[in-house]
Amino acid sequence: MSKPLVDRFYSSFAKHDGDAMAACYHPDVTFEDPAFGELKGHNAGDMWRMLCSGGTDVRIEHTVHEADDDGARVSWVANYTFSSTGRPVRNEITTTMKFRDGKIIDHRDRFKMWGWASQALGVPGRLLGWSPMLKAKVRKMALSNLAAFQAADS
Q: Domain tally for the chain?
């Protein structure tokens, strides 16, 4: 049951179907990554809806390394154009998921913020991608974009 759920989640991302991705989540889901920090419940699903609505050139590849009824470990790659700068990004991500009631209850994405910032932001990212200041700025922008998306959607 778990591998099909993981495959459905990432296949939906590849199709830019944020609603289908959100449907894979348990209502009490916790999501966390370096860009958005921790999101709970509908905020996690809305993040994917937002990313799918704005990232028309996103290409996704995923590999499930381990999966059972309790959780999964996945590696995936997102290739896309960062909309704020027009720069190409290849982000390699490691994911751990936990499941409850046939849905994803916990989703943790890990990637190298410095590597992402170097690609997405160019020279400023290469120079400051490691710094707490830049990480905080990226998170503030990501959460602001999510809030604007949610406000426009309601």
A: 1
CA dist., res. 42 & res. 51, Å (int): 14
Query: Which domain does 71 fall in, by range?
Result: 2-111
- 94 DSSP β-pair partners: 75, 110
CB 137 within 8 A of CB 120: no
CA angle 108, 44, 5 (to 5 degrees): 65
The number of C-alpha atoms within 13 Å of 79 and in the hemisphere containing its C-beta is 4
Model confidence pLDDT, tens digit, residues 102-120: 999 999 999 999 999 999 9
- Nearest to 36, CA basis, from 48, 52, 19, 28: 48
Model-level pTM? Answer: 0.92
